């Protein structure tokens, strides 16, 4: 990492949802490494505390907050905890979603149960909306903020046997653009990262590794994508380097989708 930019987030407070597992841990660690005070938010409170404790052991400032992003009261407590601990909220990374840690069915569109469709929409679409609504007042008060949403490359090209997930991630694209219009006057940028298929599972089995390797065929860069490939994009959109960038989607997938 460029030494000039390695402390771009000094003095900032960053909330990362879904930060106790997978790619969320990588996002949290990168933002903390750039100087941010971290709020590690996750449905799994014990795992969130382990991540926060590991950051504190490295000399970072971090707290853990157990949070269900689909619950309005829970995300309200998350925002309050961040403000009580650090006084400000500068960055929100809307990362939490149903995918692997909170699993979803990989089935055809007519085999998915309506209850699972509703739950996935509640978490993957309603969740970022509720969380953003909870933190926006603190950002508006300061006249500055960074919201980074996580979509998926599947929203740009489609992906069979997970229509509810792809639909939800496509919704995040429109959510990002509309929110950028609404919050721009408050000095708040809203952008999106669309990852490709990433080996984000903890201790993946052979089937998972093989499934990720199958995604190499349409990539310009012929290797498996790892969480480390995504953190630079999120850090850029969370930092002052992107202060005049808003409403944009940055695809990070090794050149599978080009637009």
TrEMBL record:
The alphabetized UniProt keywords are: Oxidoreductase
Q: Which domain of life is it from?
A: Bacteria
Q: What is its EC number?
A: 1.1.1.-
Record SUPFAM superfamilies: NAD(P)-binding Rossmann-fold domains
Q: Where are the transmembrane segments?
A: none
Keyword Cytoplasm in annotation: no
Give the family this protein belongs to, as stated in its UniProt record: Belongs to the short-chain dehydrogenases/reductases (SDR) family.
> Which NCBIfam families does the protein's record reference?
PRK07231.1
Protein name, per record: SDR family NAD(P)-dependent oxidoreductase
Q: Which Pfam families does the UniProt record give? A: adh_short_C2
Enzyme class (EC, first level):
oxidoreductase
Q: What Gene Ontology terms describe what this protein does at the molecular function level?
A: oxidoreductase activity
Question: Which residues lie in coiled coils?
Answer: none
């Amino acid at each position: 990492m460029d030494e000039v930019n390695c402390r771009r987030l000094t003095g900032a407070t960053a909330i990362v949802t879904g930060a106790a597992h997978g790619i969320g841990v990588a996002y949290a660690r990168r933002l903390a490494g750039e100087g941010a005070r971290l709020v590690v938010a996750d449905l799994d409170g014990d795992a969130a505390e382990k991540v926060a404790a590991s950051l504190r052991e490295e000399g970072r400032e971090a707290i853990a907050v157990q949070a269900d992003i689909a619950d309005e009261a829970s995300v309200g407590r998350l925002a309050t905890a961040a403000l009580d601990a650090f006084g400000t909220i500068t960055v929100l990374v809307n990362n939490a979603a149903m995918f692997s840690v909170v699993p979803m069915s990989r089935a055809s569109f007519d085999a998915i149960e309506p209850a699972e469709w509703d739950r996935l929409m509640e978490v993957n679409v309603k969740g970022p909306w509720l969380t953003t609504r909870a933190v926006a007042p603190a950002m508006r008060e300061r006249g500055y903020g960074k919201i980074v949403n996580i979509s998926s490359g599947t929203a740009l090209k489609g992906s069979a046997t997970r229509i509810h997930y792809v639909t939800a991630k496509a919704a995040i694209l429109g959510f990002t653009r509309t929110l950028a219009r609404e919050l721009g006057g408050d000095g708040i940028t809203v952008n999106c990262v669309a990852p490709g298929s990433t080996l984000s599972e903890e201790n993946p089995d052979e089937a998972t590794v093989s499934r990720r390797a199958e995604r190499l065929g349409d990539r310009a860069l012929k290797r498996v994508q790892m969480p480390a490939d995504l953190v630079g994009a999120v850090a850029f959109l969370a930092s002052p380097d992107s202060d005049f960038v808003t409403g944009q989607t940055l695809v990070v997938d090794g050149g599978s989708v080009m637009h």
